[in-house]
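Entry 0007
Protein: Resolvase
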Amino acid sequence: MGYGQHGGARPTPGGRRAAPGEGGVSPKPVRVAIYLRVSKDDGSQETDNQLLQLRGFCEGWEGRELVAEYVDRESGTRGRRERKDFDRMFADAARNRFDVLLFWALDRFSREGIRKTIAYLERLDACGVAFKSYTEPFLDTDNELIAHIVLGVTSYYAQQEAIRISDRTKAGLERARKNGKVLGRPDGFERWAPVLAGMKEREFSQGRMSRETGLSYNTVKKYLRRLEAPERTPHRVDC
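Output (structure tokens):
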């Protein structure tokens, strides 16, 4: 789908295109883009239905015009993340090719953890692009009156999540030391421990953890054991 050409509309104070009737300017359609990430576990019918619903929502969205669609389809190859349209979407956002990004749900927008996800949302805001979740009405910055509130709340939760992850990691490492484990050169555990801990809290299966992180199933299993109950190991001397 091509991009609409709607130059000349005066931006709102937040940097976004003025909605019809706003600010005394002549009505110009607000350009909407759709982003949909498709998991290999989704059936094609479910995916098509989601896309059709998003398109239908745009058609009935007064003063808005759908100008672009970005769809990433996961291949299911372990360790490979195909997000070409995600990158293309951000490149187009930086070029001011749309004003609002509509996605199905936050976990369809990104599954990289709350901090990275919120960083992406803040990046959209920095480009002057609002975002709206179709299934989560509270995630909507298209309304200037609540946009800063939504961003403030999401930023707060990102900070709290960072603190929780840091505390969990420190506690896990301290528990490992008390159980006799000597932490020498990083073997990947310290890097992935907070990520896996967060996934475990959200009740991800080990198979899904493997797919999302790119780690092998056995490595995920080994790291989870170290998180839950580190075993005593003989002291070693690092070279």
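Curator remark: The CA atoms of residues 45 and 135 lie 18 Å apart. Confidence is low (pLDDT under 50) at residues 1-15, 76-80, 230-239.
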